[in-house]
């Protein structure tokens, strides 16, 4: 009896793995089709995987549908992906919410979702949130843009070499903004990093250009 019960449990587990292998394989096939530019084949492969609950398939399908101007269906799949904590889904859904594409415009909700994606490790989400605090996107007001939370996002973005955040921190340390005490040494450190990333040596001469991070568009900025 004990052996039979264990065997039944093992068979059930294997059946579950086999069932999930289908969506995973469909996602991989859809991803390959998308990368070679075959959008129709990509959608055909991704949709069954997405409908079966595969988060990455939901996010990629949502991105393709968004690019195809099928906004409402895109939002539906992106919400499914975001609900599973899929960062790519959260980033794109936040962008659509911020713009009011396929869903009512919701800047505050978009920012919250983008922050979740940033905390999950998406670099472009960190940049997007920092850019919002810099430029007033997501309906952030002057008080919020001068808050300790704004400083924290500037610092996160600076860690991944986001130049506008680095420049803003240099100025903040010079002037004592964001509740910081003026600190010339820190200001000089950020200014030196800014020059290095721009490929500008001390003295203003151009050095070897550094790669600059791409800054995503932020609604309302």
Shape verdict: elongated
* Rg over C-alpha atoms, rounded to the nearest angstrom: 23 Å
Cα separation of the termini: 67 Å
Summarize the main sheet. none
Number of helices: 11
Query: Average pLDDT across residues?
Result: 87
Class inferred from helices and paired strands: mainly alpha
Descriptive overview:
This protein is mostly helical. It is built from 11 helices and no strands. The longest helix has 34 residues. The radius of gyration is 23 Å and the shape is elongated.
Give the structure's gist in a few sentences.
With 221 residues, the chain is an all-alpha fold. The chain has helices spanning 2-35, 39-51, 55-67, 71-83, 87-99, 107-119, 123-135, 142-145, 148-159, 163-175, 184-198.
Key attributes of the depicted protein:
221 residues, mainly alpha, 11 helices, 71% helix, disordered C terminus
What is the topological layout?
Elements: H1 2-35, H2 39-51, H3 55-67, H4 71-83, H5 87-99, H6 107-119, H7 123-135, H8 142-145, H9 148-159, H10 163-175, H11 184-198
Helix pairs in contact: 1-2, 2-3, 3-4, 3-5, 4-5, 5-6, 6-7, 7-9, 9-10, 10-11
């Amino acid at each position: 009896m004990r052996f039979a019960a264990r065997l039944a449990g093992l068979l059930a587990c294997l059946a579950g793995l086999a069932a999930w292998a289908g969506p995973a394989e469909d996602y991989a096939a859809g991803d390959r089709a998308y990368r070679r530019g075959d959008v129709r084949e990509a959608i055909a492969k991704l949709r069954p995987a997405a409908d079966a609950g595969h988060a990455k398939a939901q996010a990629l399908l949502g991105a393709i549908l968004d690019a195809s101007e099928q906004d409402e269906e895109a939002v539906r799949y992106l919400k499914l992906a975001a609900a599973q904590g899929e960062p790519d889904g959260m980033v794109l859904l936040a962008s659509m919410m911020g713009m009011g594409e396929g869903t009512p415009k919701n800047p505050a909700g978009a920012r919250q979702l983008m922050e979740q994606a940033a905390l999950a490790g998406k670099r472009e989400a960190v940049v997007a949130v920092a850019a919002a605090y810099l430029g007033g996107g997501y309906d952030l007001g002057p008080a919020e843009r001068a808050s300790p939370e704004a400083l924290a996002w500037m610092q996160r973005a600076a860690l991944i070499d986001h130049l506008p955040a680095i420049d803003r921190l240099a100025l903040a340390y010079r002037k004592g903004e964001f509740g910081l005490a003026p600190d010339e040494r820190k200001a000089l450190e950020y200014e030196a990093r800014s020059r290095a990333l721009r490929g500008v040596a001390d003295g203003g001469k151009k050095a070897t250009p550094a790669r600059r991070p791409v800054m995503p568009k932020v609604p309302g900025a």
